[in-house]
Amino acid sequence: MRLIVLSAVVPMLVLGLIGCARVQDVPQRETQYIEVPYTGQVSAQTVQDLEDQYPPGFWENQQLPLANQATVAIKEFTTNPQQPDLGRSFADMLASALVNSGQVRVVERENISSLLTELEFSQTGLSATPSGYETGQMHTVDYVITGSIAQMAGRQRVEVKALDVLSGEIFASESMVVDQVNTGVANSLAGMLLGTMRRR
Fold first, then answer.
1. DSSP 125
2. How many distinct structural domains can be found in the chain?
3. Is the pTM of this model over 0.85?
4. Three-class secondary structure of residue 113 per DSSP
5. Segments of the chain scoring below 50 in pLDDT
6. Is residue 72 part of a domain?
């Protein structure tokens, strides 16, 4: 009986001593934060390459005087038959991007068909003059922009070309492979085209 009582008392004494023990606070280290300016995820070399590739002022999005703005007509992009509206939608996105740049004037879609028909006729050599622009409306357009959207292994390849109406020369051809065709793609391709136009 005495053994049983001792067995019960000893653990209680131990627990009591533990409970009375003083718990010391762990000293906390003072944390200081240093502000580091965000430089973006573009390396200095990439920035330099972009500055070398594009003319001064390209990224400033400066609006040109109306008299100095080239006039462009944007043809509906060819695309997958399963997505018949995609080509028209992207042409509209590209037109908006070019208009918002303040660098060029864009022909209204309603006038594009007749302009392109005249351009195709002038290129057959059947017109009275080398280009046939004096008698029609094509003299009001400097460049025609066309392109295509094609499926590539679950992604989409967007290609855009710019044609000089006077010479018939394709002077710019740009492409991007993207997961989704959107306004960001249109803005990027518009920037590439504008850079090429400025260097002409």
1. T
2. 1
3. no
4. helix
5. 3, 5-6, 126-138
6. yes
